[in-house]
Amino acid sequence: xxxxxxxxxxxxxxxxxxxxxxxxxxxxxxxxxxxxxxxxxxxxxxxxxxxxxxxxxxxxxxxxxxxxxxxxxxxxxxxxxxxxxxxxxxxxxxxxxxxxxxxxxxxxxxxxxxxxxxxxxxxxxxxxxxxxxxxxxxxxxxxxxxxxxxxxxxxxxxxxxxxxxxxxxxxxxxxxxxxxxxxxxxxxxxxxxxxxxxxxxxxxxxxxxxxxxxxxxxxxxxxxxxxxxxxxxxxxxxxxxxxxxxxxxxxxxxxxxxxxxxxxxxxxxxxxxxxxxxxxxxxxxxxxxxxxxxxxxxxxxxxxxxxxxxxxxxxxxxxxxxxxxxxxxxxx
Length: 332
Fold this sequence. Notes:
The protein is of the alpha/beta class. It has two domains: about 1-145, Nucleotidyltransferase, domain 5, CATH 3.30.420; about 145-240. Helix content is about 55%, strand content about 10%. The protein contains 13 helices and five strands. The chain has a five-stranded mixed sheet with strand order 3-2-1-4-5, with helices on both faces. Helix 10 (about 255-265) packs across helix 12 (about 295-320). The model is unreliable at about 1-15 and about 290-300 (pLDDT under 50).
């Protein structure tokens, strides 16, 4: 809190005549902190998604700070489940907006610190002032177009369905082991129905019904996977995904991996250097953070990071590289 007050009251970071606003976004409510850099922050609570209340808070903050109704407003919030719709709406209202990578926000590691939504909002506001004063304090995310953002849904849903398929098969296998049934076939595969018809009577009636429901869910998931695969194959055959087709021509990259790399990395993102690319994949540490705190960033990399590590592993197997192999062993 002392750091926040120092920045807000300091003369070096003051930019007069403009309003600064930070969002702390929650599921049910948003906490807004607003200041012109000379006064302490004004704090407001609004219902989540209530854009009218946000504009009302901006008007009140302008009046409190003695700014004109046309004074420029700069805002920021951490990337999260709200995605990009709030950023686009703020831009439509004439409010400057940036979305910051939560893994890049500095943390004081000298001692334990209090953490509340109010303090987090004040912290974001202080860093926003420093950002507009020319200091490099965080990583600003690049906005995808609505079309690029929507194009990522296919492979993300596909990855989620693959996890669900694995979960269903593991669940069925675990339930069967309770009665010493160990099918040596693919659960849910072409031979499953015949195997279940023979061994189903060895299972108690309640558990048998549960297994049948679990099998039905597995069938549904597999059907949805086939639909997504067919749609993706159709787009490739029709030439609607030229970048995916071009990337898939490379050795060790198939259509699935090429689709992920194009939609997550090479289709719309722009990287200034290798470190930015590695950071997007969760392979590079964030400045100012300890190594043991990198799990949050690596988790954020998601399917793109998994695809990148998988390609590196394939390359290491095909070509014994004394530099790549130790790095991969360190990530296992």
